[in-house]
Here is the input.
Amino acid sequence: MCKIKITAFLSILVILLFSCGEDEPIEQVVFDDTPYILNYGNLPEPNLPPDNFLTNQKVELGRMLFYEKMLSKDGSQSCASCHNQSDGFSDTLRLSIGVEMLEGKRQAMPIFNMAWHSNEFFWDGRAHLLRDQSLEPIQDPLEMNETLENVISKLSNSQLYTNQFKRAFDSEEITSEKMSLAMEQFMLSIVSYDSKYDKYLAGEVTLSESEERGRVLFETEYNPFFPELSGADCVHCHGGANFENDQYMNNGLDTDAAMLDIGREEVTQNIADKGKFKVPTLRNIEITLPYMHDGRFQTLEEVIEHYNSGIKESSTVDPAILNTKYSGLLLTDQDKIDLVNFLKTLTDHTFINNTEYTDPFE
Here is the structure.
């Protein structure tokens, strides 16, 4: 009996030893071009790039890169460092701080609904496509201050990334072009369409009395001849489903003498573009403070007061805005409260809590 038990024990021991010596099964990494289904609610159909078809694996790779700190010189910052989801993928600092502890030149623009922008990217429009925009912060000395060559080297030494590039592009080779295409795809996937205002349009909720008065003011034109009928005239610049107009405009922030940033003119070299900046969406405006290209306003109340009484005259200020300089928008204190309350209905809590956009490494 003892011999039988000993023999059985030795047999089990041998099996265990051989089992421990076996290699772990190798993961089979295969190319996967399954299309990514972009959800955009009742927004109009987006104009997606025909040469960068959205797939699940490329969007996921872009998401990984968006949150990857290896893209920065010292491994301390990622794109998400200055574009936080809870802040509408923007930065609450007036000017973002880069890896060298230097301030950026302009306030970080929010990143969402990029598929509905058709007039370049950045405040001055210096990046023609979203893929072009994606690589600039990496190389900017004021931001991540790294070279694309170094980034590629670091990523290429990571099995996690070579595997994901294989899934996304059918090749483990990592290039800056592939990085840009993947980051473009992730940013295109970030969509906001489920605010209280969207639910109101769909007949699912009603606006409060103050919010409704703010909506009417927002949509009604300025009329100095009939003050009782005059509105805040916001839709000329912030109209449509995405609350912007795909233009570059001078909104009367500074006189020519006081203008420290020439904006769009720096890109086009056209003096007519002096002081003009990309008109941003007002979606999620409640959480994407501070406001304007230089973050000079901390509150929505300050923004409204600028348009009501703070317009500065310059050579390129938009005529529609300049028309209000001398009389102001004629807004009462209650009007201002109502406008702020309406703007807050554009906050999309589903979007800022969507797990498809969160850090994949947490």
The first strand starts at residue 248 and ends at 249. The radius of gyration is 26 Å. The domain at 196-346 is CATH 1.10.760.10 (Cytochrome Bc1 Complex; Chain D, domain 2).
